[in-house]
Amino acid sequence: MSDDRFHIVLVSPEIPPNTGTIGRTAAATNAVLHIVHPIAFDMSEKALRRAGLDYWAQLDCREHVDWEAFLRAENPARLWILTARADRPVWEADLRGGDYLVFGGEAAGLAKPLQDWAVRRWGAECRIGLPVHPPARSVNLACAVTAVVYEAMRQRTHTPS
């Protein structure tokens, strides 16, 4: 596998069909999927089979018991926090292969302490998002992940060498 794959990081996902859809996006784009616990559903092999996720075996999916374990295992060089409350759209970020794209759970997004930690480490510009026009508050997590990963791929494809 190439070292310049994008990394999709789901922190405490709550809705199994969203995670399944995100897994399909990761498989289709050759991205690595990281699932950071706690999660709100069963990811055993039996549960995955029952859900019909036949492509899951083709996916590089790495589970981490918590955020600290994720950081120890991965030690990301570049990390982006995706949030509905970002002032900067994703297409203004300089996304590169090997980047970690971090998404929070469906109900509350990424916890403020994790966002604050990332801002201290990488600066406020690491907070990016997809613009949403009111009265909508946000975009479905699976839709957001797909849009962001394909934007990252577009940037990598159209970046001069």
Describe the structure.
- The chain is of the alpha/beta class and 161 residues long.
- It has a single domain, classed as Alpha/beta knot (3-Layer(aba) Sandwich).
- 35% of the residues lie in helices and 15% in strands.
- The chain has a six-stranded parallel sheet.
- Strand 1 (7-11), helix 1 and strand 2 form a beta-alpha-beta unit.
- Helix 1 packs parallel to helix 5 (141-157).
- The relative contact order is 0.21.
- The mean pLDDT is 90.
Assess the beta-strand content as a share of residues: 5-15%
Q: How much is the average pLDDT?
A: 90
Strand line-up across the major sheet: 3-2-1-5-4-6
Give the count of structural domains: 1
Provide the CATH top-level class: Alpha Beta
Q: Helices and strands in order, then pairings?
A:
Elements: E1 7-11, H1 16-29, E2 32-36, H2 45-50, E3 61-64, H3 67-74, E4 79-82, E5 100-103, H4 112-122, E6 127-128, H5 141-157
Parallel strand pairs: 1-2, 1-5, 2-3, 4-5, 4-6
Index terms:
161 residues, alpha/beta, Alpha/beta knot, 6-stranded parallel beta sheet, 5 helices, 6 strands, 15% strand, globular
Brief summary:
The chain has 161 residues and is of the alpha/beta class. It contains 5 helices and 6 strands.
